Amino acid sequence: MKTMKALIANEIDSIAVEEVSIASPKVGELRIKMKATGICHSDLSVINGVLPLPLPCVLGHEGAGIVEELGEGVTQFEIGDHVVLSFVPSCGECNDCHHQRPQFCTSGSTSYGKMIDGTSRVFRGDEEINVMQFLGCMAEYAVVPAISAVRINKDIPLDKAALVGCAVMTGVGAAINTAKITPGSTVAVFGCGGIGLSIIQGARLAGADKIIAIDLADNKLDMAKSFGATETINGGSENAVEKIHALTGGGCDFAFEAVGIPALMEQTYEAVRRGGTAVVVGVGKMTENMNLNALGLSLSGKTLKGSFYGDANPAVDFPKLLSLYQNGKLNLDDMVSTTYSIDEAPKAFEDMVNNVNARGVIVYD
Ligand code: CXF
Ligand code: ZN
């Protein structure tokens, strides 16, 4: 057992940085010395109950660190390897993994909040603490399934690399893998958080001609421009759908929803031209539904798609994104707008709610 600080959601709307214990890795697991953890809206969704996870739970699902201990049977990693963590363990053996859909691997589906074998590694006294997405990496250490880790080059700064574990993979992947944006396309992105900004970067990489960013916060729209948006719309003071139609001559080719709000999902669908593609990336509430006109879907010939984890194969796509970063094509430096210590994690969440950052990142010694 090792003691460590971790950010724990104890009950709905109640978080605390606490000292807890973490056990050694078991068969097929790794202990990671965390170096950086991004703060994501999905962590907030666990805190406020939108994502119903068993509590108490160590938050964190977007992280990077260094392998410090190998569990029995682990041969694919060495101590000292640098890794980015994937929030879906991909076993490589199930039906979905065999069909190039590792983002839908079900290896952990019966042990949510625990490790894949259904037991915990994190303890507060005798009490078992859950972890988010088999990671719980908003902590000084994390014990994770080896199939949740992807080795990366040691010369990549880990605070930048961490973002590839969620926001950047989800966003760039939605643009490139899910929507398959083609050069010269017109694109609209609703919501300019870490995922929306990454969709904008993905659209830029795919050669989109117009990239229209929509948000309620003007500082987010300024950030959107710096990552590649060519026009911006403040959805609080303008009718976004009308303006997108005006800017694109009747609707854009691709539109993305990156917030998780049904009304915005509907606007995303309305924003695309006939035959265009609307992609929902935002994670909404289980209790809410979006409305589609029953006549319109067929007559408009539009495609409506969901996108989970950027339709990624983490083992292949994480290194690709990091190579784009190293070659100056993907801007991760400006995505990390503020770093915090683990003790400052509650402040980092406040800043996220107040739209302060492109991404806030917790860094560890
Ligand atoms: C989420 C999706 C639901 C599980 C946690 C991660 N994606 C992005 O934050
Ligand atoms: Zn996330």
Outline the structure in words.
- The two termini are 20 Å apart.
- It is globular and about 60 Å long.
- 26% of the residues lie in helices and 28% in strands.
- It has 2 domains: 2-165 and 334-363, Medium-chain alcohol dehydrogenases, catalytic domain (Quinone Oxidoreductase, Chain A, domain 1), CATH 3.90.180.10; 171-308, NAD(P)-binding Rossmann-like Domain (Rossmann fold, 3-Layer(aba) Sandwich), CATH 3.40.50.
- Strands 3, 5, 6, 9, 10, 17 and 18 form a 7-stranded mixed beta sheet that branches. A 6-stranded parallel beta sheet has the order 13-12-11-14-15-16, sandwiched between helices. The chain has a 5-stranded mixed β-barrel with strand order 1-2-7-8-4.
- With 365 residues, it is an alpha/beta fold.
- The longest helix is centred in the C-terminal third of the chain and has 13 residues, at 314-326.
- A hairpin with a 2-residue loop joins strand 1 and strand 2 (14-22).
- Zinc ion is lined by residues 40, 42, 61-62, 166.
Notable characteristics:
365 residues; alpha/beta; Quinone Oxidoreductase, Chain A, domain 1; Rossmann fold; 2 domains; 7-stranded mixed sheet; 6-stranded parallel sheet; 11 helices; 18 strands; binds cyclohexylformamide; binds zinc ion
How are the SSEs ordered, and which strands pair?
Blueprint: E1 2-11, E2 14-22, E3 29-38, H1 41-47, E4 57-58, E5 63-70, E6 82-85, H2 95-98, E7 122-124, E8 127-131, E9 141-145, E10 149-152, H3 158-162, H4 167-178, E11 186-190, H5 194-205, E12 210-215, H6 218-227, E13 231-234, H7 240-248, E14 252-257, H8 262-271, E15 272-280, H9 296-300, E16 303-306, H10 314-326, E17 336-340, H11 345-353, E18 359-363
Parallel strand pairs: 4-8, 11-12, 11-14, 12-13, 14-15, 15-16, 17-18
Antiparallel strand pairs: 1-2, 1-4, 2-7, 3-5, 3-9, 3-18, 5-6, 6-10, 7-8
Helix pairs in contact: 4-5, 7-8
Bound molecules: cyclohexylformamide (CXF) and zinc ion (ZN).
